[in-house]
Design goal:
By secondary structure, the protein is α+β, with helices and mostly antiparallel strands. The protein has 22 helices and 33 strands. It folds into three domains: 55-229, Penicillin-binding protein 2a (Domain 2), CATH 3.90.1310; 322-610, 3-Layer(aba) Sandwich (Beta-lactamase); 615-745, 2-Layer Sandwich (Trypsin Inhibitor V, Chain A), CATH 3.30.10. The protein is 35% helix and 23% strand.
Length: 750
């Protein structure tokens, strides 16, 4: 029996199903197209561009850093990128030739370069920061394989930049350094990275359908924009002088935890020098600079060397002048002096009694004076500062009270960062009783009055002293004076900023006078420089450290001062952490460093000399050349120079002399004039001047047939004695030879 065909109803159902499928299918396609063309349009366009374009960065030249006088102290030198265009390498043999040749020249692995030659590209980096000499070898190799193997356009060089520091370790803790990608990591390089970096350029290269770079005619180049330049307030000459003497003091006093010195212009806050030792070479920042530390790490087990290395590197990079806090000790006493004077709590007639110690409150331990019993006795405020008497300053703390003390502590800037334009500046560590910042118990005020039991940074201390030298005006310190573009146009400049006036001009001048007297005849003689009206204060403080569970009391020696005290131009602090030599007092450790720096910097800065009558008697005269003169002519010339002629021989003319021409010797010193060959046998022995006073040394020199020049402290009182001499005792020298004798204060002043 034949099957019946589909009914009309079945056909209709089938048609409806077919229409639903068609409408649904085409509807989905249309919806997808609308979605891609509207919502996804911009994203798809960007993907298409990314597929069609290759983007290569062109390095920007990092800005240079100059000292105050325009000398380059950091710059970006031209180096080279070695790149290959493997698209031009047609055979595997060509790829191996290129890979092997470049590997040998660039000290790389041939296999690694070979892998890069397999890519279909016109631009692949092989090595960055290649010097010019190596680049020339690469270009010679490229020319050689072109002639011998027919390989051309496969090797290219592109200009790049590498940071260099031509003065090596000079001011390294201030400058900092950059990383492998040219980003600032420490110091000014980090602080001003956004200005120094510049704007990288770009090479945009078209790609074909399979992702291969198109030839160079399909490129667009956007030039890089050089970074801005920095001109610092730091003076290279001042900085070198400071670094020299800080290093010397560290060696002579066996300083264990580094040291630093900061010099600022008191009227502007500009930093003229910031010497931090031991430092490092920013050209090799990841090398441990201290040989002793390096050897110590090498002896450690291998699993501990990495951690020790990281700790050593962090320590040498750390800018101790702004990042480390310390207990200031007696250099803080001028601040307490300013407070009691400003509050009219003392005057010239106020007396402070010292019996060698003071018990601030019943049940408290003694606070001792550095001279011990019976103490300084009755003394004025000026004498208390010159004696650096702790019991006297405890009494001043009582007069002030906690609230007023903290008011002046804050006013002088100790409760806040100075705001210097350097990274890593630390805050103070002050008393924090019952969770209230600045809340002090009475015993806290007693010890804080002479600079103990709180911590500040050396930068805060020198700025507070500079405020006293600046008629009471506290300045904002800064290191960068100007930012300029590559054409020399000023982008930004720093103007001196007064934060506030903390004491009156009258009181500031009064304290400057006290500090000068302290340097002439008080406890700061080791910092005095004749003719320059130095004002200074010593500091010796205890700091409690934990060395792997062992509680140890270390000492910090410091000396802070201003010059010239009648119209201050500069303030300087010298600070040494844990001297382990024969002495740890600020007088002996930091004072000579301060004096040595000031004795060279002040003449360089053109500060006028004004000698006192007492100083004039110790000044040197200069000999001339008397050879060839008659005895009478030479004698007259020597006498005119305020020197004493001694004639040796029976001749009529001078044939030799001692000391030699243009030597500096004290007035009334002797010049031996020889008229025959007797100079060869006229030999004397140098005595030992160590421990003698200035008067005793002068007498001994004259009796020994020698001249001496005076170095160091010019004071003639009993607290000053000869500490060093330029010619060792026992050496035989010509009569009249000049021996430089350095005099220093021998009292251990806190």
């Amino acid at each position: 029996m034949a099957k019946k065909g589909p009914t009309v109803m079945l056909w209709r159902r089938s048609l409806i199903v077919l229409l639903v499928i068609l409408i649904g299918g085409f509807g989905s396609v249309v919806a997808r197209l609308l979605y891609l063309q509207t919502y996804m349009a911009s994203d798809l366009q960007q993907r298409a561009v990314n597929q069609q374009l290759a983007d290569t960065t062109i390095s920007a030249k990092r800005g240079s850093i100059y000292d105050k006088n325009g000398k380059v102290i950091a710059q970006s030198a031209t180096v080279w990128k070695i790149v290959i265009a493997p698209i031009y390498l047609e055979t595997d043999e060509d790829r191996h030739i290129v890979a092997d040749g470049l590997a040998e020249i660039l000290s790389l692995e041939s296999d690694e370069i070979y892998k890069k030659t397999l890519k279909k590209s016109y631009y692949i980096e092989v090595k960055r920061q290649v010097d010019t000499e190596t680049r020339e070898k690469v270009l010679d190799f490229a020319e050689k394989i072109k002639e011998k193997n027919g390989i051309s356009q496969a090797i290219n060089t592109i200009e790049d930049f590498k940071r260099s520091y031509p003065l090596n370790s000079f001011a390294s803790n201030v400058l900092g350094f950059v990383g492998s990608d040219g980003q600032g990591l420490e110091g000014l390089e980090a602080q001003y990275d956004e200005y120094l970096t510049g704007r990288p350029g770009r090479i945009i290269t078209a790609q074909n359908a399979v992702g291969t770079d198109m030839p160079f005619q399909y490129q667009q180049k956007v030039d890089a924009q050089d970074g801005y330049n920095l001109t610092l307030t730091i003076d290279e000459t001042v900085q070198r002088i400071m670094e020299k003497y800080v290093k010397q003091a560290i060696v002579e006093n066996k300083v264990a935890n580094r040291g630093c010195a900061i010099m600022v212009e008191v009227k502007t806050g500009a930093v003229l020098g910031m010497a931090v030792e031991g430092s490092y070479d920013p050209n090799e920042p990841f090398e441990i600079a201290d040989e002793a530390t390096k050897k110590k790490i090498e002896k450690l087990p291998e699993d501990k060397q990495a951690e020790a290395t990281n700790e050593a590197l962090a320590k040498q990079w750390r800018n101790k002048a702004v990042a480390d806090t310390y207990v200031p000790g007696s250099v803080f006493k001028p601040v307490t002096t300013a407070a009691v004077l400003s509050e009219k709590l003392v005057d010239d007639d106020t007396r402070f009694n010292c019996t060698g110690y003071i018990i601030p409150y019943e049940g408290e331990r003694k606070i001792e004076c550095h001279v011990g019993v019976p103490g300084h006795g009755s003394q004025t405020l000026r004498e208390a500062l010159m004696n650096s008497c702790n019991p006297a300053y405890v009494q001043m703390g009582f007069l002030l009270g906690a609230e007023k003390f903290y008011q002046y502590y804050t006013a002088f800037g100790f409760s806040e960062k100075t705001g210097i334009d350097l990274p890593g500046e630390s805050e103070d560590i002050f008393f924090d009783q019952e969770g209230i910042e600045g809340k002090m118990y009475d015993i806290d005020v007693a010890v804080a009055s002479f600079g103990q039991n709180f911590q500040i940074t050396p930068m805060q201390m020198v700025m507070a002293l500079a405020a006293i030298g600046n008629n009471g005006n506290l300045m904002q310190p800064y290191v960068v004076a100007q930012i300029t573009d590559s054409a020399g146009n000023v982008v930004k400049s720093t103007e001196p900023t007064v934060k506030r006036q903390v004491i009156s001009e009258n009181i500031a001048k009064q304290i400057c006078g006290m500090l000068q007297e302290n340097a002439i005849s008080g406890g700061a003689k080791n910092g005095y420089v004749a003719g320059y009206r130095i004002g200074g204060k010593t500091g010796t403080s205890e700091t409690h450290r934990d060395y792997n569970g062992d509680k140890v009391d270390d000492y910090i020696a410091s000396f802070a001062g201003i010059a010239p005290s009648d119209d201050p131009e500069v303030a300087l602090i010298c600070y040494f952490d844990t001297p382990t030599g024969n002495n740890y007092y600020g007088t002996a450790v930091a004072g000579p460093c301060f004096r040595n720096i000031m004795s060279e910097v002040l003449p360089y800065l053109g500060v006028e000399k004004k000698y006192s009558e007492k100083e004039l008697t110790n000044l040197s005269a200069q000999t001339e050349s008397y050879v060839g003169m008659t005895v009478d002519e030479a004698s007259a010339a020597v006498t005119k120079a305020e020197l004493v002629p001694i004639i040796k021989g029976d001749g009529e003319n001078v044939i030799s002399q001692s000391p030699k021409a243009y030597s500096q010797i004290p007035k009334d010193g002797t010049v031996v004039l020889y008229t025959d060959d007797s100079a060869q046998s006229d030999i004397v022995t140098v005595p030992d001047f160590t421990g003698l006073t200035m008067a005793q040394s002068s007498t001994l020199a004259a009796d020994s047939g020698l001249n001496i020049t005076i170095s160091g402290t010019f004071s003639s009182d009993e607290s000053v004695s000869a500490a060093k001499q330029s010619v060792e005792a026992g050496k035989n020298v010509a009569r009249g030879t000049v021996v430089t004798v350095t005099f220093e204060q021998k009292d251990n002043i806190m």
